[in-house]
Every structure is written in structure tokens, then in C-alpha cells.
Amino acid sequence: MATDRSRRRALTLGATLTVVVVALYASGGVFSGLRTAANAVVSPFTWSVNEVARPIGHFFAGAVNYGDVVAQNQKLRYELGKAQQQENETWSFQRQLEQITTQLDVPFVGSLPTVTAQITTLSPTSFAATVDIDKGRDQGLLAGMPVVANGGLVGSIVSTTPNGATVRLISDTRSVVGVTFGKGTTPLVVSGRGVNNGLFATSVPLSTSLTPGTLLATDGLDGGLFPAGLPVARVSTVTLTPGAATYNLTLRPTADLRHLSYVDVVLWEPST
Amino acid sequence: MRRTLLPATIVTLFVVAIQLDILSSLRFAGTVIMLVWLWPVAMGLAGFTSLALYVALLGGVLVDTHSTTPFGLTAIVGLLLAYCASLLGREGVGDLDSAAYWVTPVLAAVAGFAAPPIYVFGGVFVFNFDLWRGSVASMMVVNAVAFLVLARIVTRAARAVASVGERVRR
């Protein structure tokens, strides 16, 4: 059994080591190296856990959800066929639109190159809404690049390793996205409320005509973090506190953030 | 202590791997069960103070490198929980053999219940005021229940890890 003294010494040593590591993190670039090293240490263990757990998980999931999987597969096939049909129909319109937007010098995400990546892991804690993807610096990904999937903006890259990156989802409590709607004259700021709590916007001027269902898209202002026109969220509820001069909005992301498998990273840097 | 470091390190790495690979996906009410906090708590309740602090630091730092939350906060909360648990463990309060069968699970559940608000409170010291916006209440409940259920198993594992070192010494 440890004595009081040795316990205090161990606690002090632990706290000191944590402070040193935090200081290294605060100093900047060291964190990327630390993260890569930590990945290298943990990945063999993650791999072995994965190899054991995945078949067991698949067995139980398959046994319990077989009917759902078949139904989902049929639905996806139907949607794929429908999407291919729509793609054929809109191809010519797309070309015309790209030509027009190029002439107007408006950034249009359709003309920006993207990299498709697979989600590898979700955030290890409930305090951050992030996902890790299997593409990184070696594939041209940089911190700040927008990530889209499932019909809208998903988030942006916050850190990269040679073959991986971490994406902060728009539902993360530290996420802030500049958006607009309608004719694009009213800029709003959308923030995250945590993993399962959707999005919100406060201090919305009373003069704006927002109703439930209104689509909000990135504003693409100069120096902004996202190109213009990426769908972000739809208005769920509009709340007006008696006596207040502004609205509060709760919003539902257009992208289904709970069922992400693949995402597209838009090769667009905020500084450009 | 030195002889138990290697098995404790290996098991902690597996705990981190389980946290990253399984528990991050297996969410209850959208909440992740924090095995990296239960592991040092169990080690502390088993009476292995230094080991508890060591695994709290190692597991916490490794998880923090995979998260965008303030770096070191998971480790600090783990250290605090491990220290408090070891105070009880040293007195034999959380001992699986001598204490009543429910004592270890209940103590672990208290730790699981307290950990998320401690984490949120800790965030204030690194100027992160947004952590409370997540579902802290559901995190408290889910972790308390999970710690209650898993406490005896994990504490037995902690004792087994420590006894490996003892056997090597003999």
C-alpha cells in the first residue's frame, strides 16, 4: 500500500507531467507530432481490438437487424437509380450554371475539387462532436477545408496527419458558421449545441422573415471560413422572447450527422 | 510498482483502443461511456495508488490526442478520480473481498456521475466555456450506470494486472 507521502508525490508528478504536455501543446506544432506518435502507439491495439470486436458486432447486428438491412438496401438502390436519373437531367443545367457563376466570379462549390474520405472513428468523448477520416495531408487535405456529405455542410477539418484528419462537425459546441438565406442580405451566425442537440442561432433581427423550414446556406463573405452556397441547416423553431428585440432559432442540419460513412472534403482554403 | 508498469501499460493501451474503436461508436443516449476514467478508478479502489495515477495519466493523454477538446483535461479528471478512489481503496473501502458487494459499484457510479461536471468545470480553467452545452446530464447518468455495472469486473481486472507484477517479483 502506498503511503500518503508517496501518493502525494505520484499525484504531483502526474499533474506536473500533464502541465508539461499541455505546455507543449500550447506551443503549437508539437501537437501534430504528438498526435502522430500517439496514433502510432495506439493503432496496433486499436487494430487488434477492431479485429476481435468487429466480427462479433457484425454477427449480432446482422442477426438483429437483418430485415432493416434488406429494406435499407432496397431503398438505397431506388434512391441511387433516382439520383442517376436526376444527374443525367441536370448535367446540362449544371454546365450552364458553372459558366454563369465563373463569369460572375462567384465561388461555386460544384466547380471546386473534392476528395472523398471514409469515416474511421467518432469522437472518443461526448464533449466533442468530431469524426476522424482516412485521408490526410498526403492527399492534399489542410486544416480549415470544408467537409460536405448527405446533402449539406458537415464541418471543417481541424487537424491533419499524413494519412488522416479530424473533422469538427457543425454540431460541435465550438463550431461557428456564417450563413445567410433568401436573397443573402442578412448574415447570421450558426453555432453547435453538442453531439445530439442540433444547431442554434441567436440575435436574429426581427426584420428578417424566417419561418420553419427556411434553408440557411454559407454566406461566403470575404475572409469567411466556407465558400458560398453550402446548405447548412433548416429552421426548426423560431422563438421570440417577450420584450426582446431579436429572435432565437433552433435549427436542424441539412446533412444527417448521425449516419455519416463517407464525406467529401472540398479542396478550398479559407485564405483563398 | 515498476514490475506492474508493463502489464498496466499494455492493458491501458487496450482500454484506450476500446474507448476509441468501440465505445466511441456504441453510444447510449448519444453519450460515450468513459472507460478511460473507470479504469483508474477501479485501480484506485483496488488500492494501487501509483498505478491508478499512472494509468489515468497515460489513458487520458492518449485519448486527448484523439480529441479536439482541451488537451490534458481528460487526463486531469482521470488523475483526480484516481486519487480520490485510491484514498478509499487504501482504507479498504472499495475492496472487493472485505467490503459489501455493492460498495465498489456504488463508489464507481459516484465517480461516473461526478466526472462529466468536473470535466466541464475544468474547461473553465482553459477558457473553454462551451462544454456545458453538450448533454452533461445524460453523460452523468449514462456513465454512472455504466460504471455501476462494470465496476466489479474492471476492479478484478485491475487486481489481476497488479498481481502479474507481484508474481514476477516472487
Radius of gyration of chain B: 15 Å
Stretches of chain B where pLDDT is under 50 for at least 5 consecutive residues are none
What is the CA–CA distance across the termini of chain A? 60 Å
Write down the CATH class of the largest domain in chain A. Mainly Beta
Topology:
The complex is a heterodimer of chains A (272) and B (170).
Chain A: H1 4-26, H2 30-104, E1 114-122, E2 130-133, E3 146-149, E4 152-161, E5 164-169, E6 176-180, E7 188-192, E8 199-205, E9 215-218, E10 231-240, E11 246-253, E12 262-266
Antiparallel strand pairs in A: 1-2, 1-12, 2-5, 3-4, 3-12, 4-5, 6-7, 6-9, 7-8, 8-11, 9-10, 10-11
Chain B: H1 2-23, H2 35-45, H3 49-65, H4 73-90, H5 103-125, H6 136-169
Helix pairs in contact in B: 1-3, 1-6, 2-3, 2-4, 2-5, 2-6, 3-4, 4-5, 5-6
What does this entry look like structurally?
The complex is a heterodimer of chains A (272) and B (170). Chain A is of the alpha+beta class. In chain A, 36% of the residues lie in helices and 28% in strands. Chain A contains two helices and twelve strands, in the order ααββββββββββββ. Chain A has a six-stranded antiparallel beta barrel. In chain A, a hairpin with a 5-residue loop joins β10 (231-240) and β11. Chain B is mainly α and 170 residues long. Chain B contains six helices and no strands. In chain B, α2 runs parallel beside α4, α3 (49-65) packs antiparallel against α4 (73-90) and α5 packs across α6.
Which short descriptors sum up this protein?
heterodimer; A: 272 residues; alpha+beta; Thrombin, subunit H; six-stranded antiparallel barrel; six-stranded antiparallel beta barrel; 28% strand; B: mainly alpha
